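Data card: per-record layout.
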Amino acid sequence: MNGSRVYWTPMAIESLQVMYDFVSIKWDQQIMDVLLDAVDETIGRIQQHPGIAQLIEGTPFRRYVLHKYVSLYYMLTDEQVKILLVWDNRMDDRDLIQRLTGAA
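The structure for this 104-residue chain is written out next.
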């Protein structure tokens, strides 16, 4: 699956936008650019090595930590890497699996 096609779910796009908007209020453009660069680099790594991220036990979901405060969740299908959610690790994660399941 090297060079895999990446698909961003609507929830993933929305959660990235929310994270970006939050960062833009708290920090300057340079920090925002670092966040987006980290996302781009991570997507490139995942495309080349889809199994690189930690598999969440008992689920098809994988977690890639972008930063101590931000994780990217995805799953693999036969045809693509499906980006499900960009998550602020400081948030309450009780409904995380339910949200991932809804995005899948």
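Known properties of this structure: The helical segments are 10-26, 29-48, 96-103. Residues 3 and 44 are 8 Å apart (CA to CA).

See the next section for split statistics.
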